[in-house]
From TrEMBL:
Cofactors named for this entry: pyridoxal 5'-phosphate
Keywords assigned by UniProt, alphabetized: Cytoplasm, Isomerase, Porphyrin biosynthesis, Pyridoxal phosphate
Organism: Marinoscillum furvescens DSM 4134
The name this protein goes by in its record: Glutamate-1-semialdehyde 2,1-aminomutase
HAMAP family, per database record: HemL_aminotrans_3
Catalytic activities: (S)-4-amino-5-oxopentanoate = 5-aminolevulinate
Length: 430
């Protein structure tokens, strides 16, 4: 496979853009090699600058659930651009998307649009702090909530460890208000809460983490957090930037039947445009400016082009609930194919899957939290990733990312993915 143009563009980009990419996860640092530069994408496929075609298993890290360049979304964007890319003043589409989000996501009675998932989570914890009058938050090791200072906290040595910054630039003052816990460890969370009685504003988590690979909440974990938050007056925030509109039209909360106080959204909500949102109970969201005292604003928030894209894709998902069946069956077919290969090769590797999210972990241990995810053989994964790339399958360039299946994969695509996986695993394990 020729990737000369990508290589040349990357080497030029490094002279002007830090690390040559506009988001670190796009670099291939964890897997070796240089990132591919893309020129276009349509449906299930992406095409690079050298003319190579790939089946896309990341789908822009989640948003392209209906595949790339979906006709209705594309038309809505073009129409909106012609009416001006930005008003900086209210427009009907903002109301329509807000109504739809409140209808679709069980916990959301009021919603504020922002421009990214990071803005959504940063704003949500500010509101939770304003609402409770408390400073501390609990986050889970291995959960990612964007690059807000409060969330860039190192995986420490246990649930009760006080946070320390893992990125230079995050002050110790900020880090001390972020307490860590282990995913799926309810007793550990209870201990952190007991040690910080009446000081915790919010518990924030991905109800189905995708940022340590795909990890599933164990029976009773989310329910236990819900109960704990009710007892202790803590705001429970589900970060559904990934899982929102993906695991069900109402996200993980609908699928798993646990309703948080606040929800953060992103990715699919923008149909490929830069959008995020946070929402929740009216009583809490009434704290947001200009209704309430907690300040949060945005020049381009509710941008008409982004709202047109988002509203169109959400409308589609609302009107076509059968999409979720298709997503699930596509993913199950892929996972069944993988399992067949593992059986034939006598390999004991872990596959976690829910809806259209799944991960193949290069470990024989169960992956239930960050510690168990870290047991993976990342060198072998790097080899596998690069082989899959050569077979025309574009995976996330890290073992610690979920894959996202789109609704537009054909049975032939699925067979291609399964065959490539089979060949690449054989080669890696040889
Ligand atoms: N929350 C979760 C669960 C995410 O997966 C991400 C990004 O991947 C974010 C927040 C941050 O969103 P963004 O990259 O749009 O700022």
């Amino acid at each position: 496979m020729k990737i000369e143009k990508s290589k040349s563009l990357f080497s030029r980009a490094k002279n002007y853009i830090p690390g040559g990419v506009n988001s670190p996860v796009r670099a291939f640092k964890a897997v070796g090699g240089d990132p591919i530069f893309f020129k276009s994408a349509s449906g299930a496929y992406m095409y690079d600058e050298d003319g190579n075609k790939y089946i896309d298993m990341i789908n822009s890290w989640g948003p392209m659930i209906l595949g790339h360049a979906h006709e209705e979304v594309e038309e809505a964007i073009i129409k909106a651009v012609r009416n001006s890319p930005s008003f900086g003043a209210p427009a009907e589409r903002e109301l329509l998307i807000a109504e739809l989000i409140c209808e679709m996501v069980p916990s959301v009675e009021r919603v504020r649009m922002v421009n990214s998932g990071t803005e959504a989570t940063m704003s949500a914890i500010r509101v939770a702090r304003g609402y409770t009058g408390r400073d501390k938050i609990i986050k889970f090791d291995g959960c990612y909530h964007g690059h807000g200072d409060s969330f860039l906290i190192a995986a420490g040595s246990g649930a009760m460890t006080m946070g320390t910054p893992n990125s230079p630039g995050v002050t110790a003052g900020t880090a001390k208000d972020t307490l860590q816990a282990n995913f799926n460890d309810l007793e550990g969370v209870k201990q952190v809460v007991a040690d910080n009685k009446d000081e915790i504003a919010a518990i924030i988590l991905e109800p189905v983490p995708g940022n340590m690979g795909c990890v599933l909440p164990q029976q009773g974990f989310l329910e236990g957090l819900r109960q704990l938050c009710d007892e202790e007056g803590i705001v429970l925030i589900f970060d559904e930037v990934m899982s929102g509109f993906r695991l069900a039209k109402g996200g993980a909360q609908e699928r798993l039947g646990v309703i948080p106080d606040m929800t953060t959204l992103g990715k699919i909500i923008g149909g490929g445009m830069p959008v995020g949102a946070y929402g929740g109970k009216k009583e809490i969201m009434d704290y947001v400016s200009p209704q309430g005292p907690v300040y949060q604003a945005g020049t381009l928030s509710g941008n008409p082009v982004a709202m047109a894209a988002g509203h169109t894709i959400l409308n589609y998902l609302y009107d076509h609930p059968e999409t979720y069946g298709k997503l699930e069956s596509n993913t199950k077919k892929i996972v069944a194919g993988y399992k067949e290969t593992l059986d034939v090769l006598g390999l004991d590797m872990t596959i976690n899957q829910i809806g259209s999210m799944y991960s193949l972990f290069f470990t024989d241990s169960q992956v239930t939290d960050f510690e168990s995810a870290k047991k993976c053989d990342t060198a072998a994964f790097g080899q596998y990733f690069n082989l899959m790339l050569q077979h025309g399958i574009y995976l996330a360039p890290s073992q610690f990312e979920t894959l996202f299946v789109s609704a537009v994969l054909s049975d032939e695509d699925i067979q291609d993915i399964i065959s490539a996986n089979d060949e690449c695993l054989r080669a890696v394990m040889d």
